[in-house]
Write a structure and sequence with these properties.
single chain; 503 residues; Leucine Aminopeptidase, subunit E, domain 1; Aminopeptidase; 8-stranded mixed β-sheet; 6-stranded mixed β-sheet; 15 helices; 20% strand; binds ligand BES; binds manganese (II) ion; binds zinc ion
């Protein structure tokens, strides 16, 4: 699919499908009125007949006989201007694309909603992201013919001004960059989705490593290092290796590095890479285990983000580290009551083998802190069901005791429209992690489970500026929206790229 900036009056564009977004009441929307005038009020008559009020999810389509360069018009409800954020724009882009494919259109021209000059480039970026995200399907294992039906849309044009007013050179460049950025971000999100959607039987620790190797191969500025179990043993990663010990799949520590010519700072991204979480001997019930291939979503996000960061460029040196393993049961698996020694020497008593993510991440954090020595580090993990209990399925929990870094991160998430909310790292809850036989135990009580997990990780982060993102909820969803089918979401990729890739 080709994306372009169309600088022509909307009424004149020759296209299979002209799509306009209507911000609430059509009689007050300037673009709606412009097009309505050209088709002799046929649009407002259709709106009236179908009770179209410009609410989001509402739409109207209309075959044009005269008055326009387009062969069809579609009006998508965009809701009130004040409520239209990045996620709503992505849905609009996705709806436009999906409608075009349903109608068998080869080309479409979408008039970007007028949200003000300051938001023009980001509006275009989010619309384009939506189109690429809305085209996503995980159909590798579907054999039926219509599951693989080819799509028709080839040309996706965006108008930033319905009257076709010529943009300034700077504006034109900004829109062009936004078209590019939107495609790159969404491709990385889609890549992460596929890594998550692939069954655990395929997406093993070695396969995650292979994905990272494929990304490194694409970009001269990216290198990859895969540490096998033996090397991790030498490094003393006793917590990480214990979790994977019950599996026949070898545990792998995946380390991707993006190095620009001159780096302003060094940032490390750490992803939870449990490719399947059975719970271990603290076995999950079947229904809770069913979707546990998603437990490498953090790894998928940080690895895929490197792809986009390397494509767009960054003035930061960026490291992505994922400690990948399977949490299974067998004669070799770790047990309740075991005492593990972590890479930093802390001993940990296991009172629940299902709290495995913090063990793998604890050692990954120590690896990053001591070997990479970043200025900042972030971890992304499907860590606790408790985080979903606290915030629901759509919102990630953010924990940090570094005020400035945490605020910068949340402000970035605000710009990308990924829902994130800070939870307090209340030190008083640390009491729950006390053990009589080791320095710590790996789980606390039921209440505050997302926070005790965060406090456990904090032990290993020590004084390195660090932000923990628990994405157990939003990493995978059973509810779809236009820009996001059910299953793996690629959550966090957009915010990571927004935080690190240069403009
Ligand atoms: N991978 C799970 C958390 C999870 C739950 C992710 C649901 C995605 C959806 C994690 O390893 C886990 O099992 N956590 C336990 C922690 C508990 C034993 C303290 C949980 O949340 O029940
Ligand atoms: Mn678990
Ligand atoms: Zn887990």
């Amino acid at each position: 699919m080709d994306f372009s900036h169309i600088v022509e009056p909307a009424l004149a564009v020759s296209t299979d499908l002209l799509v306009i977004a209507c911000l609430g009441d059509p009689s007050k929307d300037a673009t709606f009125r412009l097009v309505d005038g050209a088709v002799k009020k046929a649009l407002s008559e259709a709106a009236e007949a179908e009770s179209f009020e410009g609410k989001s999810t509402q739409s109207l389509t209309f075959r044009v006989t005269t008055g326009l360069g387009a062969r069809r018009v579609a009006v998508l409800g965009a809701g009130a201007r004040g409520e239209l954020g990045p996620a709503g724009l992505r849905d609009l882009g996705a709806q436009a694309l999906q409608l075009a494919n349903r109608l068998g259109a080869r080309s479409l021209a979408l008039v970007a909603p007028a949200l003000g000059a300051a938001r023009e480039a980001s509006t275009v970026q989010h619309l384009v992201e939506g189109a690429v995200l809305g085209a996503y399907k995980f159909d590798r294992y579907l054999t039926g013919a219509d599951a693989k039906k080819p799509t028709t849309l080839k040309e996706f044009g965006v108008l930033t001004d319905p009257k076709g007013k010529k943009a300034s050179a700077a504006q034109g460049r900004a829109v062009k960059a936004a078209l590019e950025r939107g495609q790159v971000v969404a491709a990385a999100v889609n890549r992460a989705r596929t890594m998550v959607n692939e069954p655990a039987g395929f997406m093993t620790p070695s396969q995650v490593a292979a994905e990272a190797e494929a990304i490194a191969k694409k970009h001269p500025a990216v290198t990859v290092q895969i540490l096998g179990a033996k090397k991790c043993e030498e490094l003393g990663m006793g917590m990480f290796l214990a979790v994977g010990r019950g599996s026949d799949q070898e545990s792998k520590l995946v380390h991707l590095t993006y190095k620009p010519k001159r780096a302003r700072k060094k940032v490390a991204l750490i992803g939870k890479g449990v490719t399947f979480d059975s719970g271990g001997y603290s076995l999950k019930p079947s229904n809770a285990m069913e979707d546990m291939k998603v437990d490498m979503s953090g790894a998928a996000a940080v690895i895929s983000a490197i792809d986009a960061i390397a494509t767009l460029g960054s003035d930061c040196e960026v490291h992505a580290v994922a400690a990948c393993c399977e949490n299974l049961v067998s004669g070799r698996a770790y047990k309740l009551g075991d005492v593990l020694t972590s890479m930093d020497g802390t001993t940990v008593e296991i009172n629940n083998t299902d709290a495995e993510g913090r063990l793998t991440l604890g050692d990954a954090i120590t690896f990053v802190r001591t070997k990479v020595q970043p200025d900042e580090m972030f971890d992304f993990a499907t860590l606790t069901g408790a985080c979903m209990v606290a915030l629901g399925p759509y919102t990630a929990g953010v924990m940090s005791d570094h005020e400035a870094l945490c605020k910068a991160w949340l402000a970035t998430a605000e710009r990308t429209g990924e829902d994130m909310w800070r939870l307090p790292l209340n030190g008083r809850l640390r009491e729950q992690l006390k053990s009589s036989v080791a320095d710590m135990r790996n789980t606390g009580d039921r209440f505050g489970g997302a926070i005790t997990a965060g406090l456990f990780l904090k032990t290993f982060a020590r004084d390195t500026p660090w932000v923990h993102v628990d994405l157990a909820g939003p990493a995978s969803l059973s509810t779809a929206r236009p820009a996001q089918p059910r299953g793996g979401t690629g959550f966090a990729v957009a915010t990571i790229v927004e935080y690190l890739a240069k403009r």
